[in-house]
């Protein structure tokens, strides 16, 4: 057994959420190496602001830092203001999906979608939509927590999730149709 | 409520994030609208597929240790190598006394429950007896705690029994049963109950806690999964389907 130092409050609070942080970083970056760089940055940032922040929900706090690091990194990389596009203001509403033919084969398509198709579709979404979906369905966060992580109001979380789902459904159905065509 | 209004609420409805009033409104509309019912089925299908098949990327071995060690380095902190945790223990005891002294929610040691859950995830101390077999886990508790602990596996419903350990809540021993749901861990604490109490659901520091009593035993379930999923396990545990 290596000699153990007692864990600091910082580590006791954040280490239990490291796997969630890593998962989010993987979904918001491309590839394992990127995710590790982002996480390193995030853990450092978290460490520096821990004493001042004293977060009541360490999980949401850490995920928020990870998320911001991911976005900063992408801005750096792209060096262009593409990221400032306000996805929430873009046209296109989930309501139109209601118009799909009732009793359609969509339910079957969705149930048959394999992991690869789903992952592919998810990466095709705007990161704000992707993160909402991942936080909800993979990490099981409540709307309120997602709002804390993304730094947006509850209503925005609702519409992002709804649009993420609408787009995923269209993408998955499209993929299947191409395959079977 | 019409289709347009329902389309705005159907997501939160499926996610269990609607207030009771709106839930009823949506249900009434669904009962007489085939298109919106189909919409709900699609959302549920998408969710199921996502939960079952989307990978949760696990961190590579050693990454956590490396990053946290690196974070400690830059500013040398006042980290004294405390003598074998004696002071930590003293501090922990003081904390337990403090939390049991101010307890806002009835007599439930909520912080203690969350702490016990978090602790179980940190160290290699999730389970003392590792088994998915209820007939192995149940007898293990005999003689370790003064009540018979009902142990049931719900693998078929997505809650996999992965073992048990002895923990301490409220200064008394409690049996901790560990269930896994995807990558998430749920701790179920079981101990003798003095009196019957109704079920309560609470959110503490981002964790969901459900407490109830049943046949002389006090149950406390804690996890970080979605309330709807946690509730599913509560219903399974509370149901008496004769499988134990």
State the helicity of chain B in percent bands.
40-55%
End-to-end distance of chain A: 60 Å
Shape of chain B: globular
Order of helices and strands of chain A: HHHHHHHHH
By DSSP, the count of extended strands of chain B is 6
What is the subunit arrangement here?
heterodimer
- Round the mean pLDDT of chain B to the nearest integer and report it: 81
The amount of helix of chain A comes to 55-70%
Percent of residues in β-strands of chain A: under 5%
Report the largest inter-chain contact.
A-B, 64 and 58 residues
Task: Summarize the structure in words.
- The complex is a heterodimer of chains A (181) and B (244).
- Chain A contains 9 helices and no strands.
- Chain A has 181 residues and is mainly α.
- In chain A, helix 3 crosses helix 4 and helix 8 crosses helix 9.
- Chain A is elongated and about 55 Å long.
- About 10% of the residues of chain A have low confidence.
- By secondary structure, chain B is of the alpha+beta class.
- Chain B is built from 8 helices and 6 strands, in the order αααααααββββββα.
- A 6-stranded antiparallel beta sheet of chain B has the order 1-2-3-6-5-4, with helices on both faces.
- Chain B is globular and about 60 Å long.
- Chain B starts with a helix and ends in a 6-residue tail after the last helix.
- At the A-B interface, helix 2, helix 3, helix 4, helix 5 and helix 6 of A face helix 1, helix 3, helix 4 and helix 6 of B.
């Amino acid at each position: 057994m290596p000699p153990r130092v007692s864990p600091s409050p910082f580590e006791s609070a954040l280490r239990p959420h490291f796997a969630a942080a890593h998962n989010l970083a993987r979904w918001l970056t491309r590839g394992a190496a990127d995710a590790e760089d982002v996480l390193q940055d995030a853990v450092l940032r978290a460490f520096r602001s821990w004493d001042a922040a004293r977060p009541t929900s360490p999980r949401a706090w850490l995920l928020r830092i990870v998320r911001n690091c991911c976005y900063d990194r992408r801005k750096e990389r792209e060096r262009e203001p593409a990221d400032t596009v306000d996805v929430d203001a873009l046209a296109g509403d989930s309501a139109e999906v209601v118009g799909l033919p009732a009793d359609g084969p969509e339910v079957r398509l969705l149930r048959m979608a394999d992991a690869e198709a789903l992952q592919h579709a998810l990466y095709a979404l705007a990161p704000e939509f992707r993160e909402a979906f991942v936080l909800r369905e993979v990490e099981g966060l409540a709307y309120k927590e997602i709002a804390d992580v993304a730094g947006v109001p509850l209503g925005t979380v609702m519409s992002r999730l709804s649009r993420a789902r609408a787009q995923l459904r269209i993408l998955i159905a499209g993929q299947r149709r191409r395959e079977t065509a | 409520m019409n289709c347009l209004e329902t389309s705005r609420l159907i997501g939160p409805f499926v996610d269990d994030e609607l207030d009771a009033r709106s839930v009823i409104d949506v249900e009434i509309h669904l009962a007489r609208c085939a298109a919106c019912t189909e919409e709900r089925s699609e959302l549920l299908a998408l969710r199921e597929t996502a939960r079952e098949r989307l990978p949760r990327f696990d961190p590579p071995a050693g990454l956590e240790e490396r990053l946290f060690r690196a974070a400690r380095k830059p500013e040398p902190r006042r980290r004294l190598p405390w003598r074998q945790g004696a002071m930590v223990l003293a501090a922990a005891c003081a904390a337990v006394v403090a939390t049991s002294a101010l307890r806002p929610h009835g007599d439930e040691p909520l912080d203690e429950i969350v702490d016990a859950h978090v602790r179980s995830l940190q160290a290699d101390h999730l389970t003392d007896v590792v088994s998915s077999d209820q007939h192995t886990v149940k007898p293990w508790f005999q003689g370790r705690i003064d009540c018979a602990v009902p142990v049931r596996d719900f693998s078929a419903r997505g809650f996999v029994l992965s073992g048990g350990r002895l923990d301490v809540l409220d200064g008394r021993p409690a049996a901790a049963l560990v269930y896994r749901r995807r990558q998430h861990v749920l701790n179920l604490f079981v101990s003798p109950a003095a009196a019957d109490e109704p079920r309560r659901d609470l959110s503490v520091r981002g964790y969901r806690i459900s407490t109830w009593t049943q046949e002389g035993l006090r149950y406390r379930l804690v996890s970080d999964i979605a309330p709807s999923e946690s509730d599913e396990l509560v219903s399974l545990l509370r149901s008496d389907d004769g499988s134990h």
